[in-house]
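S.,

Sequence below, as promised.
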Amino acid sequence: MYLRGASAIRFNTDSEVIDAYRILHRSGSNYAGGPTPWGAWLSGEERDRGLV
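The prediction came back faster than expected:
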């Protein structure tokens, strides 16, 4: 299994990239996810173990 993740890219109002950074790392098959109000990231992966 390859460990993957997700990244974010920020653009300014002229559509220029101003920042890029990793928001999730060491995950497998990311299907969906999102940030929590306290700054953590939840990842829903395509697994049969029922983990988040």
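The CA atoms of residues 33 and 43 lie 4 Å apart.

Coffee later?
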